[in-house]
Amino acid sequence: MLLKLIGASLILFAGTLIGFLQAARFADRPKQIRQLAGALQRLETEIVFGQTPLPDALQHTASNAGQPVGRLFQAVADELSAGEGRSFRECWDHAMRRAWPTTSMRAPELTVTLRLGSILGMSDKDDQLKHLRLAAVQLKAEEDAARDDQAKYEKMSRSLGLLLAVLVVILMV
Amino acid sequence: MDIDVSAIFQIAGIGIIIAMIHTLLKQMGKEEVAHWVTVIGFVVVLFMVVRLLNDLFQEIKTIFLFQ
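Structure tokens for the assembled complex are given below, as produced in the milestone run.
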């Protein structure tokens, strides 16, 4: 009986925790998209006004951005400085895809970022500026969508976790 | 007798929880998921009822066709 009670409370606890984690993902997504947009703004400044070489610019951006997003740029900078004769685009794609799961962001933002990666460092600064602006606009749209999702699903996933845990407990009694 | 009562409470509990999940999902605009949850809950409860009915028929068999 006691063992049953302990097991039931453990399942309840775990279910509630899963629900809260899911809700936290929904809450973090708009924040991180805004962070990413800010970091791209910073990168734009580096490119247009500082005319910094891309690896240094990425390094600066990484150290200035907040944590989960800074890691993305850090990964790209690391891959670039590792050399191995790959193009910037390959490094950007690979690093972004590898570091993306550590953030709460989803596929649409990744698409925008990857598209930007095929342009950066390929042409003159006006063209790059144009594409950075485009990416910023697209990220803004994604942020709005993510905010809608947050309003919709944050509370739902929180209570859904608890309810599913209660259901499992009742089924197993 | 004791087991029967707990089974009834279990089915009632499943019903309440499924109803809550259904309203929650419906409110958030995920009607298909809500319907699937209801169907799955129904099937689970159906299995439990079938088991109880099986017990009942066994009982009847042992009472009327005893050998």
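The mean pLDDT of chain A is 81. The helical segments of chain A are 2-50, 54-64, 67-82, 88-99, 107-117, 125-172. Further analysis is deferred to the final report.
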